[in-house]
Amino acid sequence: MRRTALLFLSLLISVATAQLADGDIRGFVLDLAEGIGIRAAGTAGERAAADYLEQRFREFGYQTELQPFPFTYFQDLGSAYQVGQGPEVNASTLGFSPPAELSAPLVFANLGRIQDLRGREVQGRIVLLRRGEIPFLEKAQNAARAGAVAIMVFNNRPGGFDGTYGQPGPLPGLALSRSEGEDLLDRLQAGEVLQATLSINTTLEERTSQNVIARWPTGTAHLVVGGHYDSVAQGPGANDNASGTAVVLALAQAFAGTPVAEQTIFVAFGAEEEGLLGSQAFVSALPGGEPGDITAMIDIDQIAVGNTLFVGGTPSLVNLTREVFGNHEGMQYLTELRAASDHVPFQNAGIPVLVLNRQSDPNNHTALDTVIEPGTLSLAAELVAAVLRELAGEGNTVEL
Ligand SMILES: [Zn+2]
């Protein structure tokens, strides 16, 4: 290639990557994590973030679509129990427990297996159970079939615990520490009759989340680049995953009007923290649930805190990435996938995936997830940009 052509090309590329500077991408993170804050699925915060993202994509020239999907929203608003005239004790609620205010006699039924409940007086009672052996949901189902009105599960290790039914449970449920549970068990076994009063405050209802999908008005897209924009309810999710969402936005901005934009669908997924629901909804909405025209999916999740950027996925895509981007300080290619994230439904549909992720953020899923380490955003953005150019047939002849 002639020198002038090379110069022209590198000018073009530098225009395309002007917005991939760390500081520019950080602005999107701040808008999401500070400006909007907590973006838990199905909340006003998540919806505000969806509107914000749609607005940005439109400003960059993309056509947008909000793809809604229903899910079961659960929130623990704080629960407590009281035994007899004893003090009211705060307790951890089992996830997906229905709300309840009730009072009933307590009965012990070991692990809550069918054989543990058989022959016991359970009807209309609250069942005290040990943790372990079978899932919480199964304990609750067995107790419900035996006529119980609630369960209290105590830990099989010292201290309290967080447990969940994983789906709407048939009975209200509390999680107790081992010492709390053993104390109640001792009293029952000593022949005391214990009346327990439960106050379980939860919200359990059907709500809607949504993906934000951006396509360039012309061209045929066959690549998907995405990251989830929802956070957990406990914190603003700067690293998890305003960071990945911001990189998706920055790439859409940088490539607007180019062949890469024409070949790429940029997606911000909702409700990842509830179990990859947005990415599952996206894949389910593909014609016939088949990969169709989609040849690759790149997932960017939690890339702003931690010493190493891990790049894993389908071996062919990992190898291609290594060829076009090479090895940089503070990154590592993986042949296996460690993180469960939005790439999974795509991978299950047979679509090659590439996943960018950092691990061991001490503030993950807490109110302190506000940190973005310098240089992390641009590293992820430049890597994905190089891969997109290659996959879009643009080649990658110019060093970034
Ligand atoms: Zn995440």
What does this protein structure show overall?
The chain is an alpha/beta fold and 400 residues long. It folds into two domains: 3-62 and 216-391, Aminopeptidase (3-Layer(aba) Sandwich), CATH 3.40.630; 74-205, Glucose Oxidase, domain 1. 34% of the residues lie in helices and 25% in strands. It contains twelve helices and 13 strands. It has a seven-stranded mixed beta barrel, surrounded by four helices. Helix 7 (238-255) crosses helix 12. The longest helix is centred in the middle third of the chain and has 18 residues, at 238-255. The chain is elongated and about 80 Å long. Residues 396-400 have low confidence and may be disordered. Bound molecules: zinc ion. The site of zinc ion has 7 residues, from helix 7.
Portion of residues in beta strands equals 25-35%
Low-confidence stretches: 396-400
Shape: elongated
What are the bound molecules?
zinc ion
- Considering the protein shown, what is the CATH homologous superfamily of the largest domain? Zn peptidases
